[in-house]
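Hi L.,

As promised, FAD/NAD(P)-binding domain-containing protein:
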Amino acid sequence: MAASSLLRSLTGRGCAGPTAFSRYYRHLQYPFSTAAAAGAQGEAGWGFPGLGPTAKGEKARVVVLGTGWAGSRLMKDLDTGGYDVVCVAPRNHMVFTPLLASTCVGTLEFRSVAEPLARIQPAVSKSPGSHFFLARCTGVDPDAHTIDCETVTDGQKDALEPWKFKVAYDKLVFACGAEASTFGIHGVADNAVFLREVHHAQEIRRRLLLNLMLSEVPGMPALLICIMHAVPSAESSRTVRGLGKGFSGRPYPRLCNAGRPRLEPGTCWLQAANEILSSFDVRLRQYAAKQLVKSGVRLVRGIVKDVQPNKLILDDGEEVPYGVLVWSTGVGASSFVKSLPFPKSPGGRIGVDEWLRVPSVQDVYAIGDCSGFLESTGKEVLPALAQVAERQGKYLAQLLNRVMKAGGGHATSAAEVDVGPPFVYKHLGSMATVGRYKALVDLRQSKVR
């Protein structure tokens, strides 16, 4: 089943029509009125009229940073009858991460795991006060209720200099996620591919096919197809098996035998890890390891000390050659999150209270992988999982809608508003696929946190 059908709970409506896009295109062509252009850009630095502080009688503005699980669910459920929604993010779509591994081997097409934000929240392309900006936040001024932004043009040839602009907010929500952890190991950033975005999956697929073709050249030594380093997550384990499934039925006689990959030096997959699926019960981990070995995965227990262009060096001195290195070792707080002048939870995330508010400032919230409970709350930091982020996005949307209906939607006006019960997370368990028609389900940790 395509991921787009699994995302109907996030969409439920069609995409925007041509009128909305033409209106947005006119905004891009003529961002200022002739009378107010110089004043708007020179005095305040707003991108175009409508991004300054909101006045009485106008809709309150919610600014959301990010289009991941948390931010997308929040924007879907926000009441756009009372709020304008402005999203600032480096991508204009949500990625259905559990199925991202399947796109590496062609089981799914890339468009099947990406849902445009305009379909999740049509207001960003239809409502004159709601917008999406392909940009990143570079700074926050909680006293002025503004954020500084700059456009994102990474990877584009002859890219323009980033355009800087400001956005005023009534409510600000950090949902900017996390970044892959490299643990400071030399060479990871330069040589590895992180399976977190669609373009990562595209790069893995390109390199995989290239190595398969090169391995068939007469006299060319067979290349190691993929290394998956340290697999703590279900998605990573599935990726290894997914790469193996990609050989089935393909015309690569040197690598296949009766439709299954052969375990030969230089042609197998290596998984360097001390423990796979470490959050699962030990019996499930043993079953997963057995199934992965049967499918052609060679498990190497070790710690990577150095990554070079064509080989890994483990802590015991062993050298492991590779053709494609996929790095999936968990996530940590991004450099942007660490730079924010807010209290931090353990691990460097933005610290929040039981209502997902940043307690040191007004009208600022944080959800998803970039947030964590402060130690003063007495709650443990929740894991960086999609089900946590999605549940937080749903909860915060309900809270903000309640605040708006009580008259606290505008800046600094929610102090006396009853925000309702605190956020409670109930873990529903974990699942992981380890091969065709084989999967793990661990309900052992189903509990309220």
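The longest strand covers residues 131-141.

Thanks again for sending the construct details.

K.
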